[in-house]
Amino acid sequence: MRIGTGRGGMVIGSNQRLSFTGFWVLIVILSYSNGVAESQVVRGIFVFGDSLVDVGNNNYLSSIAKSNYYPYGVDFEYGPTGRFSNGKTFVDFIGKIMGLPYPLAFADPNTNGARLLGGVNYASAAAGILDETGQHYGQSFYYNPSQYANLLLNHYARQLLALYSVGLRNFFLAGIGPLGCIPNQRGSGQAPPGRCVDYVNQILGPFNEGLRSLVDQLNKRPGAMFVYGNTYGSVGDILNNPATFGFNVVDRACCGIGRNQGQITCLPFAMPCFNRNQYVFWDAFHPTEAVNAILARRAVYGSSADCYPINMLNMTLH
Q1: Organism's domain of life (predicted)?
Q2: Which residue in 84, 166, 186, 194 is a FRET match for 48, CA 20 to 30 A apart?
Q3: 280 neighbors 288 (Cβ within 8 angstroms)
């Protein structure tokens, strides 16, 4: 199995487009100088995104997208918290590497006052770049991948510039991973056994390429440092070379029901797999803690193939 580059020219219908835009992550780093040349102290991280990095915001919202039940959190120190993983998320590991506590869930009533200054997580499962993400299923909105990528990138650019305008300067923009390889898509029967759904991956190319180009444009602004995270490439490396990273199950979920354990995602009190560190995917949509740890290290310490134009460690010195 090889993961392609993610380019194509098919048409995106309403149901497809609204589900694919939910996988996004934005991290804003707040830092200050400690008086030592070429040194900065990271004070906190502020997280925007969806279920990949939700730490429990949806527990307090009127939403069916929740994971505050076992076996979610089976390997997390605090048990089920609303994280869509067996353990830590990508941003949990980012914070740990930077010596920071877990960013607090914004919707938690206890997140207030001075606690906001140490970092806040605004991510919410089923959220997306567009306000209507997750809504209007069945209506007819059709775009080709380039048109839809431009729609998303234009909205995203305005949102990022709004954050820049209030004084924020260090941004990590994660690209979209190979969604055609998640158990939910493999379980759809749209690809032969052992294969990813290629057309899904091809749809993502224009957005990821456009996001990388957007970083160049945004970095022309005074004091700005925007970094593009090559999630597609990093996850593709794991899927193409699983044994190198310690994995032996790449095509099905650790917890789920149906074909590839991906047709129905992890239900309350379902029995997950026991060898979770050997699985790439935890449920129908999300990676395991073991994968999140790898992705976080590559975001912080990675080469130019992982992060562009610099990695997160170098960004904190900017």
Answers
A1: Eukaryota
A2: 186
A3: yes
| Alpha carbons 12 and 86: distance in angstroms, whole number | 32
Annotated catalytic residue, options 31, 234, 286, 306: 286
Catalytic residue status for 51: yes
Distances from the Cα of 45 to the Cα of 30, 96, 228, angstroms: 6, 11, 16
Residue among 51, 67, 85, 234 flagged as catalytic? 51
Nearest to residue 13, comparing CAs of 137, 129, 102, 98?
A: 137
d(CA 252, CA 275): 13
Could you report the per-residue pLDDT of 88-104, keeping only the tens digit for each?
999 999 999 999 999 99
3-state secondary structure of 116: helix
Grade residue 18 by pLDDT with cuts at 50, 70 and 90.
Answer: very low
Peptide bond into 242 cis (omega under 30): no
Catalytic residue among 54, 92, 283, 306: 283
**CA atoms within 13 A of residue 65's CA, in its CB half-sphere:** 18
Residue owning tokens 């032969």: 192
First to last CA, the chain: 39
In angstroms, the CA 77 to CA 83 distance is 12
pLDDT band per the 50, 70, 90 thresholds, residue 21: very low
Q: 302 and 235 in contact (C-beta within 8 Å)?
A: no
Residue 221 has a CB neighbour count (10 Å cut-off) of 13
pTM: 0.91
Structural domains of the chain, with CATH = 14-316 (3.40.50)
How far is Cα 294 from Cα 179, in angstroms, rounded to an integer? 18
Q: How many CB atoms lie within 10 A of CB 81?
A: 19
Of 92, 127, 4, 120, nearest in space to 290 by CA: 92
Write the single-letter amino acid at 82.
G
